[in-house]
Amino acid sequence: MKSFFRLPLVLGAILSASAGAAEVKGLSMQVHDLATPFAQVWDRNAGKPDSAFVQDFKTTIASRFPAFYDVQRFGGRRTEAQHDGEIAKARTEFPSMRAAYDRKVARFTQDLPGHIASFRATFPDYAAKTDIWFLHSLGEMDGGTRTFDGKTYFIFGADAMVKYHGDGDEAAFFHHELFHDYHNMNCAKEPVWVGLWNEGLATYVAKRMNPSANNSELLLDIPHNLVADTRKQLGRAFNDLHGKLESEDQTHYAGLFQGRGGDGTGLPARRGYYLGYLVAEEIGKGMSMQQMARLECGAAHKAVVGAVEALRSQHASTGK
């Protein structure tokens, strides 16, 4: 049986994952719940060897979303034995997060309809048609999209949400990810400026929609003190960014947007999220969020380059 539910656009609506499917006029988004079965697989394999858990996981969960869970998607970078090891590792780590994981699963079911409704109040033309997969990501991701065989999937990882978000308010996080689904700007190439715009604008929208959200809730505290450490050398950060805007080098992208450092700059990892937020904030002085979201690649490129140059000049004059 397929496990999904359709989301009603009613604030406060509660629909359990076991309730089947409820038809809602004008909304075709389906949520496939594979997060709840992970806890069930863990429970029924208590006291059994890892091999039993891994096999049950593959049969019960992975078989329902092979595009995400099949080792083949790693293109030879991970063997079957290594993949089984990741599944076993998730089993070992689960007890320490179990209570928070269960709360996260319950809140996801309860809160997502309201987050979609509030997002649509700001962006009424949001179609909300991309299916959502809610699952244990084996440590890979808290939320975002993945493309497999040319098809884009909208995924939320309950385990990483626990690890990175704790029990905080998730509204800004959901609005950030929903904006990605709404924005979906497709350019012929994806140099650094495109990632800067996509992530910076999503963060800006999340903050505008949730003015009281703190850096942690905006995911601007990974790594810890990301904003403060970037601000200490903001002039240098914008100089570095300016020289990389047109780059398609994955090392440049990784240093700006991924958790690992190693790009040789001495600047904070993932600083691109905060720098992108500042760029969007600068552009937002003359445009609404809705206007910014509708910019095509050419217009967005011009706006981003202009904002980076302005901010570079501004912070160079302060010596920071």
Question: What share of the residues lie within helices?
Answer: 40-55%
Please count the beta strands (DSSP E, at least 2 residues each). 5
Rg from Cα: 20 Å
Indicate the low-confidence ranges by residue numbers: 1-26
Q: Main β-sheet, in a few words?
A: 5 strands, mixed
How many individual domains? 2
What overall geometry do the principal axes of the alpha carbons give?
A: globular
Number of helices: 13
The strand order across the widest sheet is 1-2-3-5-4
Mean pLDDT level? 89
* Content of β-strand: 5-15%
Secondary-structure element pattern, one letter each: EEHHHHEEEHHHHHHHHH
What structural class do you assign from the helix and strand content?
alpha/beta
The end-to-end span amounts to 58 Å
Task: List strands and helices in order, with pairings.
Layout lengths: L3 E3 L23 E4 L1 H10 L5 H11 L5 H4 L10 H43 L9 E4 L7 E6 L2 E7 H8 L5 H13 L8 H18 L16 H6 L2 H9 L7 H8 L13 H13 L5 H5 L3 H20 L4
Parallel strand pairs: 2-3, 3-5
Antiparallel strand pairs: 1-2, 4-5
How would you describe this structure to a colleague?
The protein has two domains: 4-183, no CATH class; 192-316, no CATH class. The protein has a five-stranded mixed β-sheet with strand order 1-2-3-5-4. The chain is globular and about 65 Å long. β4 and β5 (151-157) form a beta hairpin. The protein has helices spanning 35-44, 50-60, 66-69, 80-122, 158-165, 171-183, 192-209, 226-231, 234-242, 250-257, 271-283, 289-293, 297-316, and strands at 4-6, 30-33, 132-135, 143-148, 151-157. Mean pLDDT is 89; it is low at 1-26. It is built from 13 helices and five strands. The longest helix is centred in the first third of the chain and has 43 residues, at 80-122. Helix content is 52%, strand content 8%. With 320 residues, the chain is α/β, with parallel strands linked by helices. α1 runs antiparallel to α4 (80-122), α4 (80-122) crosses α5 and α4 crosses α6.
